[in-house]
Amino acid sequence: MSKIQVKNFHAPETENDSDSDIDFEDLADSSVSVGYIDTNFEELDEKELELYRIQMRSPFFPSKVGGKPAWLDYSSVPMAVGAGQINDANNNKSLELQCQSCKSQLVFLLQIYAPIGGDDDKFAHEAENLDDAFHRVIFVFLCSSKGCKSRSFKVLRSQLKRENDFFSYEAPPENYDLDEFDQEFDDSKKHLANFYKNLHLKNFLNQCAVCGLSCSKKCSRCNFAFFCSQNHQVIDWTKLNHKTLCAKYSDKSVDELISEWVNDENSVLKYNEEKSSAVFPEREIIIEPEVLDLNKLRKEQERYKYDKTKIAEDLDANEGNDQDFDAIKENDYDKDFDKFKKISAHEPSQIIRYERGGKPLWVSKYQKLKESDIPKCEYCGSRRIFEFQITPQLLCYLNLEETGQLDTVDWAGLYVYTCAKSCQAAKNSYASEYIYKQDFVS
Ligand SMILES: [Zn+2]
Ligand SMILES: [Zn+2]
Ligand SMILES: [Zn+2]
Ligand SMILES: [Zn+2]
């Protein structure tokens, strides 16, 4: 079921910042996976889109941007702000997802399905318990509220045994042959309905219809749909069509109810996609090993060095001002940005670079995080290691212009560091991990 090849560890290299030559050699034995959004999405017909949405729900273990989070541990889903005490059968601690600066509720950005302990996982021996992390998901949230002075980002890690209260032991129906589309559609829908039925019967289906955070308020008419706040109830009722759906939920058997719910959730998600600024547009992230042509990169670098020498010679010949050139060389040239551009040009639509225990590809030479500044795991005290970064390319997919957030949400890079032990703080709760934001400095 592992969708990500587990990565090799590389010892940190010493950097020589005075040297403007880009060193690509550290990539020779790296094993980065890149994540991108498949733009074929735009060509899907109605039924294919429905399957696409079904397969981005929890029991398909997606990596995705936007929509509602596809939670892993349903017994401790993070709470909406001000949701109060939640039905808490297991006495699990639920986190409240609130911006530290403006106190707004954080919005779900993306999640990566990232189990550990694959054959080439050099960190497997460090894991506290591999069996406990058969399923493992990293979630990223941010404050997107307008006018927030210092917007918060939040990373959560959740992990589960293969045998657990929420998901079937077997892998979900997926990746059928093309001519078996109808079969895949039916099987997937059934798989999702079984999943929701189980959650419903165990009282774990108490998430807001709009944002997906857990909450205690229910629609008083149907006694089935949850909402976290008046604001989200209004969105649900007016924009997401609960007004029409509500009446359908009364006097139904569990199976009928769940089957209605699966259909309705699809139309809600469809509507959400078009009309809501409460969530980002939902898109699957495809993750594949990066294929770099290092020879090509080296040749480009040689050419660049040649050009640089030539410019210097020309400046000399024309009695140009060497000082100016040196100034350009020393101050404006950003080796890190140049390297980032050259490497990401191989897969220009990449939004994720994943290499657990690898090294980040800094987008700029400014505000690089020192390894000594990465905080230790607040639960077990072990060190945190790099797991993945989110590139600025993701900003293009978030509909920021349409929702008036264009000037408020921004980054050069977001770098996620997680507990090297992937410790069991994440058992029956969502463990906070570390995220570092690098800005574009002008
Ligand atoms: Zn805020
Ligand atoms: Zn909500
Ligand atoms: Zn209702
Ligand atoms: Zn830990």
From TrEMBL:
Q: Where is this region: Disordered?
A: 1-20
InterPro entries, A to Z: PDCD2_C (IPR007320), Znf_MYND (IPR002893)
Which Pfam family is one of those matched by this entry?
PDCD2_C
Which residues does the UniProt record annotate as the domain MYND-type? Answer: 208-246
Q: Which UniProt keywords apply?
A: Metal-binding, Zinc, Zinc-finger
* A GO-annotated cellular component: cytoplasm
**Listed GO molecular functions?**
zinc ion binding
Q: Under which name does UniProt file this protein?
A: MYND-type domain-containing protein
Organism equals Brachionus calyciflorus
